[in-house]
## 1
Amino acid sequence: MRPAPHTLGRRPPVRLGLAAAIALAAVWAATTLHLGSSSFLAPGGLDAVSDFLARAITPALDYERAPPPGTEPLLWKAFRAAGKTVVFAGAAMTLALVVGLPLGLLASSAWWVEARGGRQGWRNRLLAAVAPAVYAVTRILISMMRSVHELLWAVLLLAAFGLNDLSAVFAIAIPYSGTLAKVFSELIDEAPRDAARALRGAGAGPVQVFLFGLLPAAAPDMGAYTFYRFECALRSSAVLGFFGFPTLGYYIAASFENLQYAEVWTYLYVLIALVIFFDWWSGAVRRRLT
Amino acid sequence: MSEARPHLELDGVTVAFGGTPALEDLSLSVGRGEQLALVGPSGAGKTTLLRLLNGSLRTGRGSVRIEGVRLETLSPPRLRKLQTKIGFVHQALSLVPNLSVLQNVVAGRLGSRSLMSSLRSFVLPRRDEVERVYDLLCRVGIPEKLFQRADRLSGGQRQRVAIARALYQGGTTILADEPVSSVDPARARATVELLTSICRESGLTLCVSLHNLALARDYFPRLVGLRRGRIVLDRQPDQLGKEQFMKLYRLSSHELRVRP
């Protein structure tokens, strides 16, 4: 029998309406924020900006104003701050990986479907009963960790624990664990499952199926993403210096407040060099992995 | 284990997927060391039958026995233990693409290992494990691929790795679902010859589903023809007339009609 053409599931013309709604939202946002030609610069702002940018070609190699005797040289201080930035980022990423990996596993539907398999038995029936709850709770937990920015976590943790190095590490690690878990779960779910099924059919247990059938296919992308997040952690670690942690941000803020723009540029260049170096390094590793 | 008992046995098995029957009241017994080819049009239930035989699919009605043990009554750990004895060569390429051939073959024995020892054999395989895998790769004709990544191999080479993995399990049975559907005719013939000769030498029971009737006829002493979930023929190839093949493959007017 020939079905009538209008029953074939053509979608109603929603796209046009959607586009119009987005355009309206944009106009409304612009008028609410008074985005006009007049409201761009603070008085004297242009001078400050050009002053700041002018120093970009002459970053400071030594202090602009003589420091108290016994102060370490500027460049040495910049390098030490860079080292601290890497240490904070590294510690936070390590923690985020340790927490994010199991969370990502629990938040992936592939783990619940493929590794457990369609087997019978009381243990599996119990698992099947709790699985939806564990899955849902994990996803909610991940969203909560992710939706609060690391700077907000830093404010919270500073209030609770004071200017403790661990506060900074946790402030980065909590939202990063959530992001890693979310992306890991998606990568695991997208990985081909044929191999996992084959191993299960050959009598492998659920953890073995997951570790050897499912995880290896997702691992290169998971590794590459972890490297990318490490770069982000470097930036976050530097910014946390604004709260008083001894990373690059701390010195950038101090020099900026004293209007020592040449010093600001020194620290900025060190940060840029750091990010470029890790970008190059992660690129090299990614090329080897995939 | 008494020799009188068939090695693999299906008794009055019915399987349905969402109301559509895939197998209907089907009975089949396969002796130890026997080699049989399942033939029939696609959708006849060949894959379903093979998946029943390795316990990855459960019957709706009827029973599946392997070495006299009913699969339906087994606890998951005991079912896994039984599954370690059954190697399955899949239709889809079921290797882990970014692991080496060695690691893929070693994975065949996961079911009989603890988690720690399987981790060890993945990361640091012992010398005797590597040599055993190398021997198997020699037998399937690709020894030089031992340390290559699986995704660098051709379709035919991957199929050979899958066969080596099934053999590495060290079981009693090899099941293969369309093992030559992704390779050219000459290689298909070579692969089927390889499978049958290895299983004959080692006394393994072999069940293979094949699209290619000529191959099935040339290499298997027993053909089982499936059509719409039922066995329509079961005999030796030299007893088969053209008529019976026609009966197997001729499409009925019902099947030719396009469904809405």
## 2
Amino acid sequence: MATQINKQLGDNIFLTKLDAAASWARANSLWPMPFATACCGIELMSTAASKHDLSRFGSEVMRFSPRQCDLMIVAGRVVMKMLPVLQRIWLQMPEPKWCISMGACACTGGVFDTYAVVQGVDRFMPVDVYVPGCPPRPEQLIRSIIDLQEKIQSGGTINAREFKLRILPEGPARFDEDELVRIRERNGFKLEDQKYDPVH
Amino acid sequence: MANQSTDPKLSEIETVKLRLSELLLGTSLDWSEFRSQTRVICPAAELLKCLKAFKAVGFDQLTDLTAVDLLEYGNVNDRFEVVYCLLNVDSGLRLIAKTYLNEPDLTIPSATSVWFGADWPEREVYDMFGILFAGHPNFKRLLLPDEFQSFPLRKDYPVKGRGERHNFPVITRAES
């Protein structure tokens, strides 16, 4: 049937699924929200500037209002005081939306393993693509955008129903084990004591 | 090394010492010198009187106000040390004034009535060390979130914190 139509009409008609058409459009017009808090932000600017020119990949329209964005790029370390801001901006972005965690600090806290720095934004919000590096080169960020475009095109749906399946937290566990041991020992609790809640 | 007795700054500090001993009769100031920097240790009970006297003898700028936690530091018996770095803008003379504090009473008078520039440094010292400044006009945390419970620059506070950095709600993809 499809080949018959193709034969009759040539290249004038292109048959596809609505999901794929929507995903193709979305993937090639990503509007980033630059959440640049540290040196990764400089690389992000460099990526958008003329030498590396992110607009070749359809995502140069940096918007500073979350209402107009569909791609959050967390570039730089996020501290305790900034995380509620980040979460609020993320919640203000309209569906469908994606998140790139750029650089070692945004992914894991990096070298800043201190009381005030969040050890990876993926602990508290969903992340689609991680970019390693300290800071990553613009080529790496471009690669992550290409990867994200592939991800959007491979599984995207027109009403974004694939997001509804992601109901579990996607980051690492809330406490890594040695941290738990350390907190309990300091408070005089043994590891076997299950009743103690380390959070507060 | 220049001969110290010919240094004009030194003779100036001697006159400052003389004037201070007149202004602060009955207060024991402990003077010391390290690499031509003059330090004076004031008793915490008479701190505000001392600071006012320092301003009266010409130290009209508070360049810095900070604190040191001396826990497990050598053979020092005191816990905290509050440091006032003073500058005489006209003559360029500098003075480091210190006072010692011990738990449980970590309250000292605020220096904001003498130098108003002590406003933010005192809030930062409270933020990091938990030292209370009585008489401060707007006394609350400066850098850390208001709900933060600990004082992170104390030596008995672990550098990775006590789980504060993990105490946030987790947003999943389906609910955002």
## 3
Amino acid sequence: MYGIEMVKGLMVTLKNFSKKPVTIQYPEQRVAQHPRFRGEEFTWYEERCTGCASCAKYCPLGIIEIVTAPSDTAVKQGDKYQLEKFDINISRCMFCGLCVEACPYDALFMGSGFEEGKYTRDDMVITIDQLRNSPKNPSTWYRPQLESKNYDPRNGQQLTWKDVGREGWSWHKEEKAGMRINKENKVN
Amino acid sequence: MSCQLQGFYQTNFIYRSLHDIMSGLFPCNLSIILAGLMFAFLLVNILLASTAIMTWGERRLLGRFQTRIGPNRWGPFGLLQPIADLVKLLFKENLIPTGADKFLFIIAPIIIMVPVIMVMGVIPLAPGVAMTNLNVGILYILAITSVSSLGIFIAGWASNNRFAIFGAVRGVAVLISYEVPVVISLLGIVVVTGSMSLLDIVEAQALPFIMVQPMALLVFFIGSSAEMNRTPFDIAEAESEIIAGYHIEFSGIKFAVIQAAEYGAMIVTSIIIAVVFLGGWSGPLPLTLGWLWLIMKVLVVIFVFTWVRATFPRLRIDQIMAFCWKGLLPMSLINLFAVVIETFILKGSGNSLSLIDLWIMCVINTIIAVITVIVLNKLVSTKIDPAMSKSQLFSSRKLSVRN
């Protein structure tokens, strides 16, 4: 008990002493998230969204609120609804990702962010403007089409709405839904 | 009348230069007293400053032992961390619990702190540089350091807290037990040098006493780390059992004083080990750089203390007692007997031991140390914990196979 084992124990700690520290000093140094990380900064492509509100229906917590209005741009080409309100109250969100699974048109993606401390509860609600302006770095969670393209959100590469759909869905390849986005110059 | 310092104080160059400055300004007797006070002030502040650096150093070292970084945010390499800690503790509320003995509660940190500072009085830091050359230096150290156990008990008693009194009782039990082997191990040194003065002990070390009496160093190292309540023996303040032990109710500056006393005790013990066992200021460097050599030795001892703390888990109270009375006490006694017999034979008619005599003692004592450790290990380890003896181990294995 008090013999060579003590020296062995001392040698173990000495071996660890000579190792490089494993600490990552967080605010300065960061660990990159996994590509399939289910995090905040939802990536939303308004061009792909039809306003079906599947995400809101599937959300187990009911924290997604969608209000649509008839579109005034290109109704004949399938652009029947435009979104007036798309609020995600992430103060209660558990990041289950069911909204992303439910989206039939690949318009909503999870993100890689996790630093979402805010000062008020109202700030915790992501509004439609924040969704429009958020960086388009979608997580590859539940989106195998992104992984098959060797896309990695950690590289900082931004994807447009044309790049993120499932292949074989030619419906999206024609520019139908995206027409209404530029409201000012109402093209097409 | 020439204002001259007498005897030992003439050789202490710091004391002498302070006295030279003072004697130009004040009358003779006053200048001697003032020089002494200034030297004492210097020593105390050096000890307290090194205590502050020690807290940082130990945390950094422990961090590296656990493959972490340790405190590094405030100042270069986190060196200003002790200042931040101190400022934090100064601004904390200074609570005195209900039902506490107010006077004893306030005086307890002081009683713990003062012996640590007083020990510095006899420690030689360089050739001739010591507060005083006491001819019973080792006895003084042993007597003074025991007083802090009184402080620990007063702190536990005055807190009016069950965990505090548990910690105090445990701490005093450990301290009284480990005092015995520590004293006996230092007795071996005194027998070889023939003097209790620390200056004489350093000068007698033609061969450092770590080689002449390795077992005495082992016993002194383990025993003193138990007396300081350091981790393998820190049942007096075991965090997982009795939260903080005897200083559970202390907050603010009182807590800071207790912490400073603990780290100061560690520094003082390291200096004593460096002086008594590692040859003090003697080394390959020239004699004027002796203080640097001493500091290097002290740092090595502190590193070993931290290394031991980072390695071993806390022992139970019965294990600690058994280790003291069955392990360390026989070791120190065997060492003392061996040293006494060797000194008796080798000294003969001459007054002091020569270098060859010390080498002979080194060889014999190393062999005795190895044999003693092996034999005691065989004897003690089976008896310390009956549940783990070999016969029971085998029987339990058979049982498990049958089932």
## 4
Amino acid sequence: MADIYAYITHKDGVADDSALELVAAAKQIDANAAVTAIVTGSGADVDNVADAVAASYAKVLKFNLDALAYPNAEVVRKLLVNVLPADAIVLISNDTFGMDLGPGLSIKLDSTFVADVVGIEGVDGAALKVIRQEYSGMVSTHVTADMSSGAVVNLRPGVFAPDESQSAGGSVEDKSGDAGDLTTKRTFLEVVEAEVGDVDITKSDVLVSVGRGIEDEENIEIAQELADAMGAVVSCSRPIVDAKWLEKSRQVGTSGQTVKPKVYLACGISGSFQHMGGIKGAPFIVAINKNVKAPIFQVADVGIEADILDFLPELTDAIKES
Amino acid sequence: MEILVCVKRVPDTAENEIEVNRDGSDIERDDLVYSVNEWDNYAVEEAILIRDKVGGSVTVVTVGDDESEEVLRREMAMGADNGLLLCDDAFAGSDGKGVASLLKAAVEKGKYDLILTGAQADGGAAEVGGMLAAMLDYPYASLVNKIEVDGDKLKVGREIEGGNQEMSEIQLPCVLSIQTGINEPRYVGIRGIRKVASVEIPQQGAADLAVDAATVGAAGARVKRLDYFVPEMGEGADMLEGSTEEIVAKLMELLKAKGGLK
């Protein structure tokens, strides 16, 4: 089998959690794989990250260049095309950077792209068999990918149990001199930090969180009344912010806030992985949804099949009376 | 600015429960309500806003069958100037790369400064835009939630983790995949649809696009879906049953025990 490479994302000199997930996934593709990590960036941070992941990877290729200071996927793609063998199997975390990088990389390497993989079933000859999800996670599929001319495999963050054995004890090689031409037509300018809203949902122990099931902007009040009765704060899922019914600072999810409440009431929220990715610390989750097939019922502790527009006012009244 | 927006007709997950059919070969398609992919609708709105500001035209394109015409018409009712349907029996079963190669052929037959796609569609792969850009050798940015036109360049914002926004400058021509929330797509009424009901929408097949039929469709796919299934997820939630009154009482008890009620 072709060599397996993992692209390591990092921030502030610390490797992302996905670094250990990618090496675990690589071993599910090939139990005997000597997996190579690729670390790019500039300055001391790259050295620290490369040294840290060397314990888990057979080899670490380090690229320390000013042009790589910010992870611009267009620049990183050029680098990878310059340095990787054409038949490489490349593993990438399916975060916002990996989604920017993976599809185009597969075209430039003339290899096969598999997006947002949530499980690896095995390899049969040149065919990699994986599990993906479609329709916002409502159904799953088995998929085969032809790896005979290489593959770029994007793996969903947080689903592969990290390999913490640190058993590889690999070496770090500085390959900065091999990077080649990295000029691109997209130039990074700056990161604009998310605005701070009037309420900090990350500080609340109890969240009443609303999704599409709230149906109308006026109905947000129903959730607010329940939250007031409970001494809780109203948060929401992405569609509510897209509709401009609540501020972005109230959004729970990978593209919003990460919250650690004790109790989370998911009201009319389907429970996409992007939303659940913003809930940490194993809170007690109550799901209220009229669609009994909603994925939220798989992850909630307690479920109620009901229309939130009917149920929430009943709950509010009962709490007020008690 | 000449703008091409790639759209797709998909089952509407807000209107349907998506279920696996009896033998797991497909989703249950009886009585499904279809609509334009939500992300694509934001992309079309953004294209119209840009055109109205700097001039030019908006063309909507899709790879699909005759029924896909309805989503092209809907987007034309929103304000897109032209529709284009890429339609051929040989295209059926294309993987993401197959779809991207068909779109590439369509792009090369026209003259576009800016190509937009939705960030993702029903398959959740979020792959066609990035593939198309690489095939055309155009610069690419995904998950775009802000566009400002600045001569032969754009200033674009990408939505990244934590609600932060990554700002970049990108040269035209380029491909961008559009994230929901970038704008507020306008409402399309029945009257708007009627206005474009009789507009001729050109179709192009494999021969028109000069693509080798063996490289697209099911025959050319290097990624193949074997089946659909619903995974065993363990116990799942403990469902509260009974009258609303009983459920409310049980829930209040649980909330008190877990610190959700004082």
